[in-house]
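Exercise 7 asks you to align residues with tokens for two separate proteins.
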Amino acid sequence: MCEDEDRWSFGDPCFIYHGKIIPQDFPYVCILVQGRPRHHQDAFSCRHPQMERRKRAKIFAPFDALDGYSDCIASKRVQYCGKIELDDAEKEELNRRLTILHNLTFNSRMARVNHVHVRVKYFVPCTDPNSFSYGRQGRYILAAGVVRNVDMEVMQTIFIDDMVIRFDDIISIEAEERSVFEQELDD
């Protein structure tokens, strides 16, 4: 009788091989017991060398049957909000900070010498045309880096490392050194 008679329905006799119940009349028992074939320096191993694990992983890696589907689903998880309108006092304070940064980075030499690190929180509108928020809402992103230039007259933009941010989209600016924005402007 088998050890697990209540679980086994094929009848007697049977044996256990590596924790599995195998019936005695199983047609491939000799192959099962023999194990995996081993090829060491024979004609087969010369013609078919063992593949590197990295290459083997590429063969069996999952593929994306619906190209772009996972990106589309991920884009739906993004939470969008409306653009915050600053009141007059907040606009004045933001303008004061931008003017200080403009004076510190008036040209490229001054920008390199002063090397002002800032964190800017700004609004980015929704660019996904399939989203309900497209053209109406967006999200706020925090950018950090060194101020390269502040264009107050023409473009009204601030250059932080390789990013260009419009003044209208900025909600707050913080400097790593608190003393940067504590100075008074000369009128």
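Second protein for Exercise 7:
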Amino acid sequence: MAREQSNREKLLQTAASLFHLQGFQPTSLDEILDQSGVCRSNFYYHFRSKDDLGLEVLTHQVEHFVTNVIDGILYDETHTPRERIERLFTQVGSAVCEGSYRGGCPFGNLAAEMAGHAEFRSRLSGFFKRWEEAVEHCLADGVARRHFRDDLDVRGAATTLVSQIEGAILLAKAYGNGGPLEAAKQHVLKFLESR
């Protein structure tokens, strides 16, 4: 028998879903409370404010991404560097298509919306740097194994690849399909393997 979710878990799950689909700012605390079924006093037992809840949601999303993508794909050297890049695009594409491409990237959405909030910006910047470092590691491995072009600027290429993915997610959201992610994957691999 599955254990019942705690009120804290209900708040985190509901807020994550609403922030992803509607944005952080447009989502009201009342809406989070109504959809989670948690009372206001219990909310304040767990969180000081909506910002505090939002930062906790972000922490959980980063942990999930690190486990499943950064450690689970990019640092997984049982696969070739090319396979890791392909798996990265597949994983991101699967996550984005779950909501019929409506939600986009929770990190990109939050970065666009909350760039003026110092704590959100700091945490998001740290997340994107960590992602870029993992991509850089994978690309360096590909160069060392002679799978990728030997003149590759791995640091610049890592930043470009993450930017390419974020842009492709934005276009997938606008178009309502995964075509931009597939195109980005094909062009990135072609570039990495060109001699």
